[in-house]
Amino acid sequence: MDVLKQMQTLTLFQGVPAEKLKVLAERALYRTCKAGEMFIGETDPAHAFYVVITGQVKLYKISAEGKEQTLNLLGPGEPFGMCTAFAIESFPANVMALEESGILLFPGPAMEAIAMEEPHLLVNIIRILSDRLKEAMTLIESLALKEIPQRIASFLIHALKGENEQGVSQLELTVTQRELAKILGATPEALSRALRKMSNTGVLAMDGRSIRILDRKALGELAEGD
After folding, report:
1. pLDDT digit string, tens, across residues 168-180
2. Less Cβ around it within 10 Å: N or C end of the chain?
3. End-to-end Cα separation, the chain, in angstroms
């Protein structure tokens, strides 16, 4: 794989001079993970920056009681480990590949050296962290204040962002319903019941991982708790 060529396509490195990217590319390591393989475990020591190149990974936490909560789903071009790239500490979550995935690893010291010289890289990191913070706040609000049907509706509206607000919309889930339940903080059985009710009331129709939104207005009202 041409690491430098891959880096030049990533939003994270936009605006960073080619000679700086070449230095990083020479230090980068490329790893592949099979579906279901743990990439990093919570509390593992980490001092690196990672970018998903192919496939999909999930970041998740497990409570003392064994309950799993998915924090993020990351696909090609999306970075993670930004909190450990500039400090030696344990990784704050577990990272597992949901499908066969390729991941670039950049040593923390190398990233820090380039970041000290290239404001474009720092600005790109800040923007990504800002987006992640907003996503985290939305997740916390949903888990703390919303019932399962509201969580599903909010998730679908977020997933359909950028689609036409009128008429019928359709999306393909990139995860199984079991994984979706972990994102929404629900049991698979509760998620299935809620989706079935939404289907029976004409809000949506499901066919495997394909979800067709039949009533966008009703979906929005459900997300708001009406």
Report:
1. 588 899 899 999 9
2. C
3. 51
